[in-house]
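Long-time lurker. I teach an intro course on protein structure, and each term I like to show students one example going from raw sequence to a predicted 3D structure in token notation. This year I'd like something fresh instead of my usual example. Would anyone be willing to generate the tokens for the chain below so I can use it in lecture? Attribution to the forum is fine with me.
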Amino acid sequence: MMQPEPDYQEITPNPRPPRRRMLGLGPLGRRRSSEHNIWEPPSSQDDTEISDQASLKAPSPPPSPPPPSAVVKEDVCEQAAQEPKGEPAPKVDSTLWWTQKGTYSRCPRQTSWKKAEHADSMIDSMLLWLNELNNQYGTKLLMLLHSSQHLIKGIVHQFQAAAVMWLLREYKVSGPQMQILLGVANSAWALKPVLGCISDMLPVMGWRKAPYVIITSIGGVVCTTAIGFSNVNSIGPLGIVACLFGMALQAATCDLLTEAKCSEQVQEKPQLGPDLIVYVWGGISVGSLLAISVVSWIIVNRGPQAVFLACIAPSAAILVPVCLNYFEEVRLSKEMESTLRANLRGQPEVVGLCVFMSGLSVALSATGVLCTSHSIHCAAALTVMAVMLLCFQLVLRPEIARVITFFALQASCSVSISGATFYFYTDQPWQYHNGPNFSVNFFASALGTGAAIVSLLGLGIYTVHMKAWRFRQILMLSNALMALMALMDAATFRRLNIAFGIPDTIFVLGSSVSSLVIRQWQWIPGIVMMSQLCPLGMEATMFALLAGCANVGTQVADYVGAFILDYFEVHPSGLRGEGHQFDNLWKASLVCTAFHILTMAILPFTIPDVKQTGNKLLLGKPASATWGSMLSRWFEES
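-- Reply from a regular --
Happy to contribute to a lecture. Here you go:
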């Protein structure tokens, strides 16, 4: 039986209409009135121009309907579906939609969250935004980022961060020594450079990413389980630090290799690069919020070890998408492996720098474990930072060297005294009578919940208002705000808020949540910038350098902070009547505030004055990370 010819049109590409027409057209082909800010139907002249773009009758057989993602509600595309067949809507970044009447019609394609003008609510806008990310980057990448970033860096990391200090408190570890041990445990993040080189140069059976994620994830799950079933008598402080190192190694490897995959996509589609980064950090904030909502109950009722048992499932979840090849890797042939190795061997300076940076981190960790003098710790940390920055300038091309130098200094100038502030906030009245005396529920959950919620607000502000800013603008603002937050902390430690009648809960909550939002504004531009600075084929290595220098900087900040606490004789450890230990804590906080000024001073000399949504920043020889470096110029001249 003959089937009737379907009622459809094939829309053929046509030249873009004049710009004055494009900017004047609103949703569904209506024109905007600049005087009254309302939508008007197109004029007859517009109809004449639009009709010139009419398409030809399509040949048989008819195309199959588009996938379900292209189906829209009748009320959204009602006007488009009723258009005459010979007069489709003008081409305004549009796509074909399959209506309920069985005809193709044009509706404006939503290119960003901001442009979802017909959305009925914030949820509809967010769904449209996620759908656009899915169309641009694919479901596999989003799911891979979900398992590595949202689950591991969101849920698992927040569980660990909330419980680890309570865990070490059971061993009566002092504040400065706690910072040293945590610096050693987190030094696995500083091994990213060598992990990136190994991934790029030594594929396992033709696969560059998946095998390393699987190996480190199995080790991380084993270490998590060991802490979960431990107690004070079975494992000592150094054993806990070793297991924390294994967990951090898994998180660092998954973070590095998924960020490298993300960088490849951002280079291809830079216009939505900030949106993809916001998706990552938004999911991390949501994961943190979920973890925070239950972590205090677990600590109070089951102990800090039970928190690590809750980390086992989300830590192991990464194995599923990786085994299903959500990296979308193509198994390399022997010839391709040889080509990749030759490309990296052609830049031995970069490989040597990665190995050298990892060696510096290991030496710094060994100093923290084997030596008890905080003066030696500080001297070793400053020496490591100076040597590392010198190596950047010698080995890397100037565009990359300047950016990495800034983020290394920004991390190291965020001097941490958290080992002492933890006791300041959580000591009970019999330990510190005039302190805030926060409970586990407030410190672990209330502060964290407020921070996670406000961080989502901060990401929304970044997405709507800041993603088109220049790099210098957002980094200057964020560092100035961090200095202001540090001053507020000093006021809390001096108990000035009590003198002015401001409760500790309100003052500390405002300072904590604001600091987390500002740190996001500091780090997101760095990821976007490095995505645009990655030489071709070296995504993992360059992201490893950026993350490695930032993590070495964080380790340096911990060591310098421990020295400052020791200098001002701030050594709390949770003992009875230790309130005098906090007399000089405000002075230590003021010294830490001064370091933020150094970051602001070097910013104009290291960060390019360009927009975040621009194209790649490497203009010459985009496959080289050393072109124009001091060392390469010296070899050429000699």
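Some talking points for your students: The chain has two domains: 1-108, 132-637. Residues 237-268 form the longest helix (32 residues).
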